[in-house]
Amino acid sequence: MLSKADNEFLTQSGPGTPMGDLLRRFWMPALLSEELPVRDGPPKKIKILGEDLLAFRSTDGRVGIVEPHCPHRGANLYYGRNEECGIRCAFHGWKFDVDGNCVDLPTSPPESTYKDTIKLLAYPTREWGDMIWVYMGPREKIPELPQLEMGLLPASSRYVTKKWQDCNWVQSVEGALDTAHFSFLHAVLAKDDVAARAALAKAAIADQATPDDRIRWIHNDPRPKFTILGHDAGLLIGAARKTDGADLYWRISQFLMPNHAYTPTAFPGEIYYGQCWVPADDGSCWIYTYCWHPDRPLSNAERAKFDGGFNVHAEVDDDYMPLRNLRNDYLIDRKVQKHTTFTGIEGVSEQDAAIQDSMGPIQDRTREHLGPTDVGVVEFRKLLMGGARSLQAGIEPKAAASANRYAVRAGGAVAAPAKNLETVMAERFGHARGYIGQQYGLGD
Amino acid sequence: MLSKADNEFLTQSGPGTPMGDLLRRFWMPALLSEELPVRDGPPKKIKILGEDLLAFRSTDGRVGIVEPHCPHRGANLYYGRNEECGIRCAFHGWKFDVDGNCVDLPTSPPESTYKDTIKLLAYPTREWGDMIWVYMGPREKIPELPQLEMGLLPASSRYVTKKWQDCNWVQSVEGALDTAHFSFLHAVLAKDDVAARAALAKAAIADQATPDDRIRWIHNDPRPKFTILGHDAGLLIGAARKTDGADLYWRISQFLMPNHAYTPTAFPGEIYYGQCWVPADDGSCWIYTYCWHPDRPLSNAERAKFDGGFNVHAEVDDDYMPLRNLRNDYLIDRKVQKHTTFTGIEGVSEQDAAIQDSMGPIQDRTREHLGPTDVGVVEFRKLLMGGARSLQAGIEPKAAASANRYAVRAGGAVAAPAKNLETVMAERFGHARGYIGQQYGLGD
Amino acid sequence: MLSKADNEFLTQSGPGTPMGDLLRRFWMPALLSEELPVRDGPPKKIKILGEDLLAFRSTDGRVGIVEPHCPHRGANLYYGRNEECGIRCAFHGWKFDVDGNCVDLPTSPPESTYKDTIKLLAYPTREWGDMIWVYMGPREKIPELPQLEMGLLPASSRYVTKKWQDCNWVQSVEGALDTAHFSFLHAVLAKDDVAARAALAKAAIADQATPDDRIRWIHNDPRPKFTILGHDAGLLIGAARKTDGADLYWRISQFLMPNHAYTPTAFPGEIYYGQCWVPADDGSCWIYTYCWHPDRPLSNAERAKFDGGFNVHAEVDDDYMPLRNLRNDYLIDRKVQKHTTFTGIEGVSEQDAAIQDSMGPIQDRTREHLGPTDVGVVEFRKLLMGGARSLQAGIEPKAAASANRYAVRAGGAVAAPAKNLETVMAERFGHARGYIGQQYGLGD
């Protein structure tokens, strides 16, 4: 339970807010690369951290992310022409490059130096891992890109999608870190009938030969025991459930500062999934979902499956709006809810969205009642709010300076009850916190 | 004419407002019974007096009306499962019965007493007269259900519908109590052509063999003389018009605290109509319309007629939204207005809605000019505002303690000019205020 | 660049604002005459200067523009009956004439004088130049109608249309006065292909036999030299561009207080165009576009062309909403933008709207950077804001008392470089400020 003031502190990310300042110390996905497919193509309006921005891909392939209004008379550069290494305002032809420099100002004579005094706000961008990233913080604090494994692999080994969500980014991250909810929200009631099999298949818990054990263990133990361990880039969140015997079934997530989370499902040889939450404004966010296989390319069949809404990938339209969303009640089917799945909503991603959106645009945390299974949520808030408070006191976030430490994995394991999380991690990933950077030459 | 402060006092009904406190001393219709047709069926979102609530019918047939957000993490129980005498949150399975008790809390061990400390806000409900009623006031002040005649009769003798209206509830009640407007708003211009006959038939003024006299009297006298008499449950409002001879044509309504009104039309042997206004928020309300015949069942043909929009019943869609409404300008037909009916809008209920909505979401009463025909409106405001002021001073409303005194009737009569309203009522209904409770064993 | 306070001062026109007071000293177009085609026809809701009003054409052909709410109980007279020289409220039959007098009050006895005390707010109206004009200022300050040439001519020689625009009226006027933007916003890229020819034809720059010179001159000189000259009714704004030789190509506009502007294109023998901006509220306006030929009737073919969206006439639907508008991104075609026209948006009027709307509902002038080509905008603001400040100090606007001085023309000319704007005007129009009133008997 938070005070009203703390809830606002946690959830507000606009310019000048403490949490907004913290987020602005990190690179944010701004677009999928596919959203700006061609050089000199149409610019695209975007909104990030409450700021309206314009993105365009220049003649040289670089991407500009800029303030959309022309400094001359305020016309929106969205209607401008993206041509010859710059975007030219449709009103009077003022032209700006991806760095915000005014490269042509035709209402002044060619010999005038007026244009050297005109600057368009432009944020640094990078293109990496099939996404366009933006850094919106102070220029002198610009960090390295976080070395997520999906970006270190060849493009053939990863797949990235995005979706809109109608709630504050924080409650959506909290939903991802709270893996206890798998026992209910994503549960399948009658796992032997055809519809239930299809639901399980879509949920991706069943994409291996013998997943029934895991499903049963999750179903039978709604009270996993949590262990949380910090590291330079974030938090390791382990949840241990009972199995049929003495062993424990561990589901282990990673939270990576300030807005990435890895799912806890993958057994060795399976596909890994992660998500990144980027606030549009305080009542909505974009969720970038990436998955990867460290050892092999993803097949076309797998990519088609992700596009159809699989695991935490959602089924979206051409504007990345989920087909099942707040406005159509997620197409909840009450008969399916009665007989087949716990929610009657199709898709793990959509089940998550329904519950997270249902808390309201910003969850009222003054009325919540947290318990032992919410410890991941509690530690996440401490890390985030502590980071924002430290930054206000002048202490820069350690994670921003630890780009290589983002090279981690998360997933599932079955282990003897005496083993603690560090031991389970060491056995599963070769490192107590799941670090795999040495495989990519990022040091030990 | 009211001051701005008095207008707000009169029209605001949210939690903590004086008028909201007064309304919360009475039972309110919350739903038609048909809206929760089956046990363990889908829950339904409702909004009453500015409060977002969730209604569900439990396994035992009882109805719960509760705060929609789960106390655990704030997920909306609307997505929950209505099963085995309670609604279970889809997020982590916390479960609540219709009284708001937490009956299962699976994230804590079975032996934990944590769930005994968790309570979901739940309001008392009753099901009576084909409606589900809710009481949203202090538990120790809970009154008896108002003994409206429609609820005392067998279900075969009544019919209940509901409709949405896009304005504050008070101006809509005022429209019902002001029976002077029948001379204009519901008037038919050319009563001898086919279209006019159809309009009259729909208006229900003509469902008797020889209604032409009443129509003519209403049309010829736009200045009825009003007499208002108080009683324990509300106000008796009589309006006397000239007839062709010396007699007066009385149209007599009942206002029953705090939000019921009976129409003034019924002659002996005719059907009686009443309405109840329930604020959704301050700019909209639900209107429950009930009609009944004290002496016989209503036929299927009559029920079909009500569903098609007859008398004060509106023609609505599956969500109880009127087919002719603010968003489509009530399908006003200016040719019909020129030649056939005074408004060009089809249906008495829709004509009322058009005029009442047209005042704005909340009528600006600082600019009105009331006259002698508005005395019913004036007395209604006095009763309501006086009741709210008294309650603020610690005096409970008498009507809430007078459930049996709601057993009254209202209707029309023709009487010699020397007879006053009390005499007319005594002759028409056997009681000076129209009380008929003795017929149902409710005392004299 | 304006301060935030000055920007609000310039753009706010509601009741009680300084600019609103200034605008209310002038007649405003309220409707096209065609919007109230028949006597006793349906009334029409309108909104002007932030005021919701109701317009109706009476039995005698006069137009009333009144407060829409009946003084009795606040019902909207829009649902009333327009009959026998007045509009009658549908609720209780109170009736008002076009001057706001209560001419029938049936809820009081015929002998009552109560109705003489009841008054409905009604603004004076005139019908002139195919428009219905309204004066919303103090009655004792009512001016003459501005003697625009289009209104002095027979109806056969003019054409008037209107369109909705989704931004504050001031930035839209500023777009019209800033004729430097023709070098970009309305430019055609490849003027020899078929699509480009069609675009040019629609833009009306090419409706003469040999317009190619003008197009080339506009294209080649994006830095016209401005000269601004004041006169009693407004401002003369001349912009001189280089031609192929020594001569200058002058494009000369008129701004007429407080909200008319004439386009700078017409050569002798061509059609003249003007526009008038009427704020609906501070974030939207109606633009009335009128064109005329001083010497001949306009043909049916020309009228059809205007309706199809030609020159500053827009292509609109039955409610005067532009077919290409903010909600559909002006149907921008990025391929056309790449190859054929500078914007990819069809129509000069729509290109203007796109750029003007794109500044936001109210342009943030605290961030603009004006230059030499913006001098017309600067002088316009000085005149308007100066007028509003003077009025606050008790000095009435001179233009309101100078109705005859609105009889001016504007247009294009080619002249020797030594000639100043006054000389060019004298040669082109016979008067240094373009006054042609003597041709209509309005004095010298």
Automatic annotation (TrEMBL), chains A, B, C:
Keyword Protease on entry: no
UniProt key word Protease: no
Classification via InterPro entries: ARHD_Rieske_2Fe_2S, Cholesterol_7-desaturase, LigXa_C, Rieske_2Fe-2S, Rieske_2Fe-2S_sf
Cross-referenced Pfam families: LigXa_C, Rieske
PROSITE patterns per UniProt: RIESKE, RING_HYDROXYL_ALPHA
GO MF terms, alphabetically ordered: 2 iron, 2 sulfur cluster binding; iron ion binding; oxidoreductase activity
Keywords linked to the UniProt accession: 2Fe-2S, Iron, Iron-sulfur, Metal-binding, Oxidoreductase
Domain Rieske: 27-134
SUPFAM superfamilies: Bet v1-like (SSF55961), ISP domain (SSF50022)
UniProt-recorded name of the protein: Ring-hydroxylating oxygenase subunit alpha
Upper lineage: Bacteria, Pseudomonadati, Pseudomonadota, Alphaproteobacteria, Hyphomicrobiales
